[in-house]
Amino acid sequence: MLYKTYGKTGKKISAISFGGMRFANPDDIDANVAVVLHAYRRGINYFDTAPDYCKDKSEEIVGSAVKQMDRGGIFVSTKCMDSNGDGLRKSLEQSLKRLNVDRIDFFHIWCLLTLEGWQERKTGGAVAAAQKAKEEGLISHLVVSSHLNGPDLRKVLAEGVFEGATLGYCAINFPYRQEAVDAAGRMNLGIVTMNPLDGGAIPKHAKRFDFIRSPKDATVTAAALRFNVSQPAITSALVGFTTVEQIDEAVAAVEDFQPYDASHLQSMRKKILDSFKGLCTGCGYCLPCPVGIDVPRMMDAYNYTILQGKMQSAVGRLHWHWGLKPADAKACSLCGACEERCTQRLPIRDRLKEIAAIPTEKPNS
Fold it and tell me: In sequence order, which residues have a C-beta less than 8 Å from that of residue 295 and are 6 or more positions away?
């Protein structure tokens, strides 16, 4: 396993980290603990979770696995999105109990979407409460998990509150976040990238993304992970694992690791920008919809029209994967609330109109 230093903390973090947000059956605690322990045995030492992940079972799963690990050799990460100081403290204490630890190594101010929201975290007492908990030894490092655009996140990081950030970054959405990554590097802050495989879209469309592979990349998955890890400012790629096979593939991607050179990274970026503008990364921050449309799932289906070049591709995705139909998009009131919250500034209303206009013939399986 390759290990990289997390900013100024001096902590050596595995270049592939474990994301506890995609357990296949959260109720099967033992089976999921086995997956986490497999990652540990393969050299992964950073385990990320949060309240509410996986039917609110993720922290329990990770905590059960932590009891079987060498605590001195791992780093546990969790989060809180409460703006209120008392609420953050209560959440932190619950996380400590669930995770079976006496401190959180990397504690995130979670789900930071706007600069106004950042002010609320400060005025509401959440930041002060987290800093107090750090003084008490309940938190080792205070960091942020954000879907802010690059310039706005750079402003937040420049305030000096955080030692690092977790942000969405992959071979699809990197232009939106590159400024924050570069700024963090200049500030010597740690960066963990969430959704480095775009929530699974990249390996699911391996043929379409094959152009990002170098001759040394066995798979498109390996290329996508190395695209992240090759960048000096990025400490670790956080992958939401479901199976041990996924872990083995990700770990193999960084074995005997040689970073891409600058010319290859530039070539990848240009090809991606030319080919895949505007794919939804599925962060879900467009919700709630005032009329109840499941916007992330609709946009996920629209991705397939971009990837496969035809609107009808969305029908099968909606029907077979999400149990939805194009007509469900007709409820859109065009209020624009989803677009205001969209972390990628996608034209959601126009896309919903396109989906709603798709003929409602029965999709092929």
Answer: 286, 287, 289, 338, 348, 352
What residue spans define the domains of the chain? 3-273, 295-356
pLDDT in 10s for each residue of the chain, 365 residues: 999 999 999 999 999 999 999 998 999 999 999 999 999 999 999 999 999 899 999 999 999 999 999 999 999 999 999 999 999 999 999 999 999 999 999 999 998 878 999 999 999 999 999 999 999 999 999 999 987 878 889 999 999 999 999 998 887 777 667 888 999 999 999 999 998 987 777 888 888 788 888 778 889 999 999 989 988 999 999 999 999 999 999 999 998 888 888 887 788 777 776 766 677 866 778 889 999 999 988 998 898 888 777 888 889 888 876 788 999 999 999 999 999 988 778 999 999 999 999 986 655 44
* Predicted model pTM: 0.80
Which contacts of 84-88 are long-range, i.e. CB under 8 A and separated by 24 or more positions? Answer: 84/124, 84/125, 84/126, 85/124, 85/125, 85/126, 85/128, 85/129, 86/125, 86/129, 87/126, 88/125, 88/126, 88/129, 88/130
Q: At what angle do helices 29-41 and 58-66 cross, to 10 degrees?
A: 50
Assign domain 3-273 one CATH number from 3.20.20.100, 3.40.50.1100, 2.160.10.10, 2.30.40.10: 3.20.20.100
